[in-house]
Amino acid sequence: MDLDTVTGGYAGRIRGFRRGAKLYLCSSFLSQLCLAAFSVVFNLYLRRLGYSLTFIGLCATMNLLGTAFSAIPAGVAGDRYGRKQSLIWAIGLSILSGAGLIFTAAIPGLVLGFSALKGAASTLKSTMQSPFLVENSHAEERVHLFSTAAAVNTLAGTFGNAYSGFAAVALAEFMGWQAAGDTRAYAWILACSLAFFVASAFPVFALDPDPPPVGARRLVNLKQTLAEPVVRQLALHNAMIGGGAGLVLPLFNNFMELKLAATADQIGVVMSGSRLLLTVATLLSPLVAARLGKVRGVVITQAVSIPLLLVIAHAPSFPVVAVAFWIRSTLMNMSSPIQSTFSMELVHKDRRATTNGVMTLASNLCRALTATGAGFLMDKVSLAAPYYGTCLLYTIGSIYYYRCFRDWEAARAERT
């Protein structure tokens, strides 16, 4: 199988996607535009309001705690009440939390509370994605659908990152405000971004109704799911990777601002460029899976990205950080569609959302713990300090994943 074969097959695969999958992709694109804008601008907005890096790290922690502790309830709710209903709830909570963060940003306690609510809303939505896509696809197109979904999200993130950074600068200049980092510019960009989340609700309303719930047995599934060794293995791997990500990603925009004096538009370029490359990379996931296998594809792409973290930590200039971040993000996330497909195929269909919730809990609880530590380390030790911990956790996580799942794929190949 060559590159032309893989990429050339996408047009036919996409045309063949089910109606529900296409509607979900549309909704996901719109919601990701808003989330990407927040990822660039919100931390900078808080800094302009006078908050410390430690507090911003605490906001990230609250967001991730909301994500973590809502993960299992979100999974159970998705299996009990259905995917469509859960997506509607997620969009409503996201709009509420986003508005709260913008309009109560001067009140620290409310910022922390709405950060946690935003995390919970995000979890409810993301927990539905993998089960929904599996249930709205055929086995032969599944990796293509997961890859397309990842590409749609990253492409939307590219636009969201780019427009938010440049729009903040352009709005400040147009209005004659004192600087591109004027808090009014940031607040307006964040408020306008919420319109994308509102628009994302319409494709979800157009989805077919959920099938009637099978109520009583759903609560049993949580206990059964937690008892399965494979679920615990997936959760532990997610915990290690999530912990590593929490050390560097939530405050990466602040890292660039403080280490390299990067402006909002420059940060937007770096983050949007990363997402643009990731869009291409995720579309190549079927090729990675075909050439390396699902397990080896996950491990190799994650492991190769690790040295680039040290390059970022000690890079002497903005262009070096930008290029290293682009390559690292591409490699680390290239196999995400493969990993998502593989994990959902390992468990029974009635436990997919709950399993996804357990994995999300493990990942984001560890992200929450390390995000607070990242802010403290950057304030008290050095800007580079968190990157060493990330390298260690990613290395252990990649080795663990390979040792746990290398035989699963071989056993499946023998059965077929």
Structural class: mainly alpha
The low-confidence runs, each spanning 5 or more residues with pLDDT under 50, are 1-8, 215-220
| Major sheet details | none
General shape:
globular
Average pLDDT taken over every residue: 80
Number of strands: 0
Q: List SSEs in N-to-C order.
A: HHHHHHHHHHHHHHHHHHHH
Give me the number of helical elements.
Answer: 20
Strand residue percentage: under 5%
Report how far the terminal alpha carbons are from each other: 19 Å
Instruction: Give helix % range.
Output: over 70%
Tell me the radius of gyration: 20 Å
Give structural notes:
This protein has 416 residues and is mainly α. Helix content is 85%, strand content 0%. It contains 20 helices and no strands. The longest helix is centred in the middle third of the chain and has 34 residues. The protein is globular and about 60 Å long. The N terminus is likely disordered.
